[in-house]
Amino acid sequence: MKALTWQGKRTVTVEEVPDPVIQQPEDAIIRVTSSAICGSDLHLYELLGPFLDRGDILGHEPMGVVVEVGADVKTLAVGDRVVIPFNIACGECYLCRRGFQSQCETTQVREYGSGAALFGYTKLYGQVPGGQAEYLRVPLADYNHIPIASDLPDERYLFLSDILPTAWQGVEYAQVPDDGTLVVMGLGPVGQFVSRIGRHRGHRVLAVDPVPERRAMAERHGIETFDLTDTIVDELRDLTDGRGADSVVDAVGLEAHGNAGVEFVQKAVGVLPDPAARQLLDKAGVDRLAAVYASIDTVRRGGTVSLSGVYAGDADIMPMKTLFDKQITLRMGQCNVKNWVDELVPLVEDIADPLGVMDLTTHSAPLDDAPELYRTFQKKEDGCIKVVLRPSTV
Ligand SMILES: NC(=O)c1ccc[n+]([C@@H]2O[C@H](COP(=O)([O-])OP(=O)(O)OC[C@H]3O[C@@H](n4cnc5c(N)ncnc54)[C@H](O)[C@@H]3O)[C@@H](O)[C@H]2O)c1
Ligand SMILES: [Zn+2]
Ligand SMILES: [Zn+2]
Description:
By secondary structure, this protein is an alpha/beta fold. Helix content is 29%, strand content 20%.
């Protein structure tokens, strides 16, 4: 089959690789009809190379049609249409039962001290072949799928694999009071959905992003938007009675604009040998923290900051005095996809499209175009906001 493979920093290629096969009786194989590129894939493309091997298949936002099931699979049959969540979880352990599928105790990657295994996401998360490919092996398939019971197009459902539940969790964790104001840092695909979910729940939403077309998209959905300027925190505070927002979601993460010093360290990681780079990435403060600092500054006293954006350094310097003095609640983490799906399916199937799932994809293309589209998405060229690849036709 054809698959999108990682070959080195900012180098991905489409290669002919062996088809996946059933390895365990709980596995299923799907033919991938749609597979999106995520902002998290950009971290692999730019920064996390030391945790990847040449030839690793990327992709963790897939959906498709079941073509083969293992002997113990009970709830899936050949021909079923499914979305595949990016977490690989068992659904039965202590943490899965409590809604922490991204921490599953059955699939945790203990060698690296990480949470649940993920599709297409480095050695830290199990080095499981990903879904930007014609076929995908799904472990523990009875639990790790979202069934599709309608003939609605892929676009309606695809974002249930990751960014829609990620945004939902981001807003849940932000604990926005009923009459409250939500500030959203970043208007990539995750920030777009965070903002729309905030509006859908009746909150005032103020969102920040340096890219004009990302702000324009958000404005179509009733969001007040702002460019990323040196005075942005003061501007936001002025708009929230001088007090600050009740809640802030950081939908940017570790590659934020506005941290020149750390950008230098991140570049240095790229020229170190893998073991040294791994140690630096894992143990040192390599995250660009501009977005999380701005979030902590912008939230009101007693408010909540919710991090949807990914962070990866264990020695990042956090403003403990400010966090303590302002009595801030911080919540974060990889999304627990299956925990939110039951609430989201009716919203994506609603013909009125309340969360605008049909207004996010700017680029849709065959798998062969993936290398070019990784570049376009990373550089934010050609109005690119969300890329959906079509490895096979429906
Ligand atoms: N927690 C999870 O489970 C989960 C799931 C999916 C994605 N993510 C993470 O969410 C983040 C966003 O993902 P995405 O797909 O929207 O990616 P993206 O890279 O397209 O979006 C990031 C946006 O932030 C903007 N930005 C950069 N610096 C900024 C700053 N200082 N202030 C405000 N905006 C700034 C960029 O212009 C861009 O539009 C990434 O870190 C990604 O890894 C987390
Ligand atoms: Zn993702
Ligand atoms: Zn589990």
